[in-house]
Amino acid sequence: MITLHRLPDQLRPDLRLVFVGTAASTRSAELGHYYAHPGNRFWRAIHEAGITPRRYQPGEFASLIEIGIGFTDLSKTGAGMDHQIAAEAIDVPGFRAKIDKYRPRTIAFTSKKAASLFYGRPSRGISLGRQTRDDCPAEIFVLPSPSGAALGSWTLEPWRELAAWIAA
Length: 168
Hints:
Layout lengths: L16 E5 L4 H6 L10 H7 L20 E5 L18 H11 L3 E4 L2 H8 L9 E2 L8 E4 L14 H11 L1
Parallel strand pairs: 1-2, 1-3, 3-5
Antiparallel strand pairs: 4-5
Protein backbone atom coordinates (compact mmCIF):
# COMPACT_ATOMS: atom_id res chain seq x y z
CA MET A 1 0.00 0.00 0.00
CA ILE A 2 1.24 3.48 -0.86
CA THR A 3 1.23 5.93 2.01
CA LEU A 4 -0.26 9.23 0.93
CA HIS A 5 1.68 12.23 2.12
CA ARG A 6 0.29 15.69 2.14
CA LEU A 7 1.92 18.23 -0.12
CA PRO A 8 4.12 20.80 1.60
CA ASP A 9 2.92 24.37 1.60
CA GLN A 10 4.97 26.68 -0.55
CA LEU A 11 4.38 29.94 1.29
CA ARG A 12 6.35 32.96 2.42
CA PRO A 13 5.39 36.55 3.24
CA ASP A 14 4.13 38.87 0.50
CA LEU A 15 3.83 36.47 -2.44
CA ARG A 16 2.10 37.97 -5.45
CA LEU A 17 -0.05 34.85 -5.90
CA VAL A 18 -0.96 31.68 -4.00
CA PHE A 19 -2.82 28.85 -5.74
CA VAL A 20 -5.25 27.06 -3.44
CA GLY A 21 -6.69 23.63 -4.15
CA THR A 22 -9.09 21.49 -2.15
CA ALA A 23 -6.56 18.69 -1.55
CA ALA A 24 -3.81 16.83 -3.34
CA SER A 25 -4.90 14.40 -6.01
CA THR A 26 -3.91 10.81 -5.43
CA ARG A 27 -1.16 11.19 -8.05
CA SER A 28 0.11 14.46 -6.56
CA ALA A 29 0.21 12.90 -3.09
CA GLU A 30 2.13 9.90 -4.43
CA LEU A 31 4.72 12.08 -6.22
CA GLY A 32 4.81 14.98 -3.78
CA HIS A 33 4.15 17.54 -6.56
CA TYR A 34 1.21 19.90 -7.01
CA TYR A 35 -1.02 19.23 -10.05
CA ALA A 36 1.01 16.15 -11.01
CA HIS A 37 -1.56 14.08 -12.93
CA PRO A 38 -0.69 14.04 -16.66
CA GLY A 39 -4.30 14.98 -17.52
CA ASN A 40 -4.26 18.07 -15.32
CA ARG A 41 -4.11 21.31 -17.33
CA PHE A 42 -2.68 23.47 -14.50
CA TRP A 43 0.91 23.82 -15.75
CA ARG A 44 -0.15 24.44 -19.34
CA ALA A 45 -2.81 26.94 -18.21
CA ILE A 46 -0.54 29.12 -16.09
CA HIS A 47 1.91 29.39 -18.96
CA GLU A 48 -0.68 29.93 -21.72
CA ALA A 49 -2.48 32.55 -19.61
CA GLY A 50 0.80 34.44 -19.10
CA ILE A 51 1.21 33.81 -15.36
CA THR A 52 4.58 32.10 -15.81
CA PRO A 53 7.30 32.89 -18.38
CA ARG A 54 7.61 29.25 -19.44
CA ARG A 55 5.83 25.94 -18.97
CA TYR A 56 6.98 24.41 -15.72
CA GLN A 57 6.73 20.72 -14.85
CA PRO A 58 4.99 19.48 -11.67
CA GLY A 59 8.33 18.56 -10.08
CA GLU A 60 9.40 22.20 -10.35
CA PHE A 61 6.54 23.57 -8.24
CA ALA A 62 8.85 24.66 -5.39
CA SER A 63 10.86 26.88 -7.75
CA LEU A 64 7.83 29.08 -8.49
CA ILE A 65 8.24 30.74 -5.11
CA GLU A 66 11.24 32.50 -6.71
CA ILE A 67 8.81 34.32 -9.05
CA GLY A 68 6.34 35.10 -6.25
CA ILE A 69 3.97 32.14 -6.64
CA GLY A 70 3.03 29.82 -3.77
CA PHE A 71 0.84 26.77 -3.23
CA THR A 72 -1.40 25.32 -0.54
CA ASP A 73 -4.59 23.27 -0.13
CA LEU A 74 -7.59 23.50 2.18
CA SER A 75 -6.91 19.91 3.23
CA LYS A 76 -3.32 19.06 4.04
CA THR A 77 -4.19 15.50 5.16
CA GLY A 78 -6.65 14.26 2.52
CA ALA A 79 -5.88 13.12 -1.02
CA GLY A 80 -8.06 12.22 -3.99
CA MET A 81 -10.82 13.85 -5.97
CA ASP A 82 -12.76 16.63 -4.24
CA HIS A 83 -15.75 14.41 -3.48
CA GLN A 84 -13.44 11.87 -1.80
CA ILE A 85 -12.07 14.32 0.78
CA ALA A 86 -13.64 13.90 4.20
CA ALA A 87 -15.29 17.05 5.56
CA GLU A 88 -13.21 16.86 8.73
CA ALA A 89 -10.02 16.97 6.62
CA ILE A 90 -10.93 20.45 5.32
CA ASP A 91 -9.28 23.14 7.45
CA VAL A 92 -10.63 26.55 6.42
CA PRO A 93 -9.63 28.24 9.72
CA GLY A 94 -6.07 26.90 9.27
CA PHE A 95 -6.03 28.21 5.69
CA ARG A 96 -7.29 31.64 6.80
CA ALA A 97 -4.55 31.74 9.46
CA LYS A 98 -1.93 31.08 6.75
CA ILE A 99 -3.32 33.91 4.62
CA ASP A 100 -3.33 36.26 7.63
CA LYS A 101 0.26 35.26 8.46
CA TYR A 102 1.78 35.39 4.96
CA ARG A 103 -0.48 38.06 3.43
CA PRO A 104 -0.20 37.25 -0.27
CA ARG A 105 -1.42 39.90 -2.71
CA THR A 106 -3.75 37.44 -4.47
CA ILE A 107 -5.12 33.95 -3.84
CA ALA A 108 -6.60 31.84 -6.60
CA PHE A 109 -8.79 28.85 -5.86
CA THR A 110 -8.22 26.23 -8.54
CA SER A 111 -11.82 25.00 -8.42
CA LYS A 112 -15.27 26.21 -7.52
CA LYS A 113 -15.34 23.41 -4.91
CA ALA A 114 -12.34 24.87 -3.05
CA ALA A 115 -13.93 28.33 -3.16
CA SER A 116 -17.28 26.97 -1.97
CA LEU A 117 -15.59 25.37 1.05
CA PHE A 118 -13.81 28.65 1.82
CA TYR A 119 -16.98 30.74 1.48
CA GLY A 120 -19.28 28.14 3.05
CA ARG A 121 -21.80 28.18 0.22
CA PRO A 122 -22.65 25.84 -2.67
CA SER A 123 -20.43 25.72 -5.77
CA ARG A 124 -23.36 26.74 -7.98
CA GLY A 125 -23.41 30.10 -6.16
CA ILE A 126 -19.75 30.77 -6.93
CA SER A 127 -18.77 32.67 -10.06
CA LEU A 128 -15.45 32.33 -11.87
CA GLY A 129 -12.96 35.18 -11.94
CA ARG A 130 -12.21 37.95 -9.47
CA GLN A 131 -14.43 37.92 -6.41
CA THR A 132 -15.97 40.73 -4.43
CA ARG A 133 -13.60 41.90 -1.73
CA ASP A 134 -14.48 40.61 1.75
CA ASP A 135 -12.52 40.51 5.01
CA CYS A 136 -9.69 38.54 3.40
CA PRO A 137 -6.41 40.50 3.15
CA ALA A 138 -5.82 39.15 -0.37
CA GLU A 139 -7.68 39.62 -3.62
CA ILE A 140 -9.50 36.40 -4.47
CA PHE A 141 -9.96 34.69 -7.82
CA VAL A 142 -11.86 31.50 -8.59
CA LEU A 143 -10.58 29.47 -11.52
CA PRO A 144 -12.16 26.55 -13.33
CA SER A 145 -10.65 23.29 -12.19
CA PRO A 146 -7.71 22.22 -14.36
CA SER A 147 -8.42 18.58 -13.51
CA GLY A 148 -9.05 16.27 -16.43
CA ALA A 149 -12.25 15.22 -14.62
CA ALA A 150 -13.61 18.76 -15.06
CA LEU A 151 -13.02 19.10 -18.80
CA GLY A 152 -16.67 19.99 -19.49
CA SER A 153 -16.40 23.31 -17.65
CA TRP A 154 -12.91 24.26 -18.80
CA THR A 155 -12.10 27.77 -19.99
CA LEU A 156 -8.78 29.64 -19.93
CA GLU A 157 -10.43 33.06 -19.67
CA PRO A 158 -10.47 33.38 -15.82
CA TRP A 159 -6.80 32.32 -15.80
CA ARG A 160 -6.06 35.17 -18.25
CA GLU A 161 -8.01 37.59 -16.04
CA LEU A 162 -5.83 36.48 -13.12
CA ALA A 163 -2.66 36.95 -15.19
CA ALA A 164 -3.70 40.51 -16.10
CA TRP A 165 -4.49 41.32 -12.45
CA ILE A 166 -1.17 40.09 -11.02
CA ALA A 167 0.78 41.82 -13.79
CA ALA A 168 -0.84 45.18 -12.99
